[in-house]
TrEMBL record:
Residue ranges of the region described as Disordered: 22-43, 146-169
UniProt-listed Gene3D superfamilies: Cytochrome c-like domain (1.10.760.10)
Protein name per UniProt: Methanol metabolism-related c-type cytochrome
Keyword Signal listed: yes
Keywords associated with the record: Signal
Bias (Basic and acidic residues): 147-163
Source organism of this protein record: Labrys wisconsinensis
Length: 169
């Protein structure tokens, strides 16, 4: 099961490698059915001047707060035993983020042990990993505050179909 989940996510990473060049690196370079990509083809967010967010950023907010905030704190701000992801995403690549979540991570040093469990078999995380990433990226870039987005796009049919396929019957 774990290999399947990791393979599914890595296939998703490959599918995101179709970005277009953008003159402004703070704006999405491309979009397909409500899902946005940056100039490097990595998933990204879209936030309108009125604060309306794309579906995936909103979904990421919900998924982050259902699965990740217990360790990494509300809004990605960190806790006493897990780092603030708003800081981590300033230097982690999309691929590094995917690998860390799927495979976990263990840092031991100076009598301090930090362990990120492997979540590659957790469908509540892996099926929404791009969503979680774009939410945290928006937080890391300072584009989204410590709030639940009040207004968001409707859930695209593609998101519904992917959710059904990933979560199973």
């Amino acid at each position: 099961m774990r290999r399947l989940a990791v393979a599914t996510v890595m296939a998703g990473v490959a599918a995101w490698s179709v970005g277009a060049a953008s003159a402004d690196p703070t704006k999405p370079a491309s979009s397909e059915d409500g899902k946005y990509a940056d100039a490097d083809g990595n998933p990204t967010y879209r936030i309108d001047p009125d604060g309306k967010v794309d579906w995936y950023t909103f979904s990421g907010y919900r998924r982050y707060h259902s699965e990740c905030h217990v360790c990494h704190g509300p809004d990605g701000m960190g806790s006493t035993y897990a780092p603030p992801l708003v800081d981590s995403l300033k230097h982690l690549t999309y691929g590094d983020f995917i690998a860390t979540v799927a495979q976990g991570k263990k840092d031991v040093g100076n009598g301090n042990e930090k362990v990120m469990p492997a979540l590659g078999e957790n469908r509540n995380v892996m099926c929404y990993l791009d969503d979680i990433y774009v939410y945290l990226k928006a937080r890391s870039d300072g584009a989204l505050g410590r709030i639940r987005p009040e207004n968001h796009d409707a859930k695209p049919q593609t998101a519904k179909d992917n959710e059904t396929a990933c979560m199973g019957p």
